[in-house]
Write a structure and sequence with these properties.
Layout lengths: L1 H15 L23 H29 L3 H27 L10 H15 L5 H31 L3 H32 L2
Helix pairs in contact: 2-3, 2-4, 2-5, 3-6, 4-5, 5-6
Protein name: Ferritin-like domain-containing protein
Length: 196
C-alpha cells in the first residue's frame, strides 16, 4: 500500500511539473558521495559522530523545553534527562577513545529536524497543559530516534567486537528506554487529559 501511495504521489508530482512520462526512479542505485563509509567500522564511526552531534544539540534544547513546561513533574523529568544527556556525551567521547578515533560531531539532520519540530510545537501551543503535552510528544520522538540509533550502534559494536564501547552504548540505550517509559507514565498521569 505504501508503494501505491508513493507511486500515486510521484505521478501527481510528475503531472504537475509537466512530466507525464512513466519514468520511475525506484530501483536505481544511489551513487555514493565522496568519503562514504566503505565498511562497517566506518559506518559505526559515522554513526557515533552523528549521535554525538545529536546529544550535544539536545543539551542545548532541553533547558528551553524545561523553561516552557508548566508541570513540575515534567520540569523535573527534563532536568533529570539533561543530566543523563551530559553523561551520554561523555560516554560517546569514551567510545571514540576506545576505537582510537578523535571525538568529532557531524550534524545529525534527523535530530535537527526533531528539535526544530519541538521548537515549533512550543510556539504553536498555549502555555500550560497543552504545551506540556506537546513537549512530551516532542521529547518522545527524540527518545525513539535515540533508542533506534543506540540499538543500531550497539549491534555494530558487537559485530566489530568493541566490547567496552558496546557496554557504554547499552548503558545509554537502557537510560533512553527508561526516559521514554517515564515520559509515557507522565503523559498518562493526567497531563494529556488536562490538555483536552
Amino acid at each position: 500500500m505504501a508503494t501505491t501511495i508513493a507511486t500515486a504521489e510521484k505521478s501527481k508530482t510528475s503531472t504537475k511539473s509537466g512530466n507525464t512520462s512513466n519514468a520511475n526512479s525506484e530501483g536505481k542505485k544511489v551513487p555514493a558521495e565522496a568519503g562514504a563509509a566503505k565498511d562497517l567500522a566506518e559506518l559505526f564511526e559515522d554513526g557515533l559522530k552523528d549521535i554525538y552531534w545529536a546529544e550535544k544539540a539536545l543539551t542545548k534544547a532541553l533547558p528551553k523545553m524545561e523553561k516552557n513546561a508548566s508541570s513540575e513533574q515534567l520540569k523535573s523529568a527534563i532536568i533529570k534527562h539533561l543530566t543523563e544527556t551530559e553523561t551520554h556525551v561523555d560516554r560517546l567521547e569514551q567510545c571514540f577513545e576506545l576505537i582510537g578515533v578523535k571525538a568529532k560531531a557531524e550534524k545529525c539532520e534527523a535530530m535537527a529536524g526533531l528539535l526544530e519540530e519541538a521548537e515549533s510545537l512550543m510556539k504553536e501551543t498555549e502555555a500550560g497543559s497543552v504545551r506540556d503535552a506537546a513537549i512530551i510528544a516532542a521529547a518522545q520522538k527524540v527518545e525513539h530516534y535515540e533508542i533506534a540509533t543506540y540499538g543500531t550502534l550497539a549491534a555494530f559494536a558487537k559485530v566489530l567486537t568493541h566490547k567496552d564501547a558496546l557496554k557504554l552504548l547499552l548503558e545509554t540505550l537502557g537510560e533512553e528506554k527508561k526516559c521514554d517509559e517515564d515520559l509515557s507514565a507522565l503523559a498518562d498521569t493526567n497531563l494529556n487529559s488536562k490538555a483536552e
